[in-house]
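seq:
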Amino acid sequence: MSFNPSHRRLALLLFAAFASAAQAQDARSGRLLASNCFQCHGTEGKGPGFEKLAGKSANDIYHELVEMRAGKEGDGLMSRHAMGYTDTQLRAIAQYFGSRR
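struct:
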């Protein structure tokens, strides 16, 4: 089956719209999940409490959370918090804080 150029453009526009909507949903879910972190790490991860997370590499934040969840950082409060999240949720949290400036 082949698409004519107008169908191809429509398909690309629809794909872009769905991708944009999915990205917006990810940002909202990341912010909602990260709201549990605000008491210690400050609004949007900017302090003044513990480690500032705003602008830190999302990949680094994610890997730190995974290590905490695995107990590699001890049995502290952060390990217990991290145990309550799936990989997808940890990625959303990390992406949210990584996107803050």
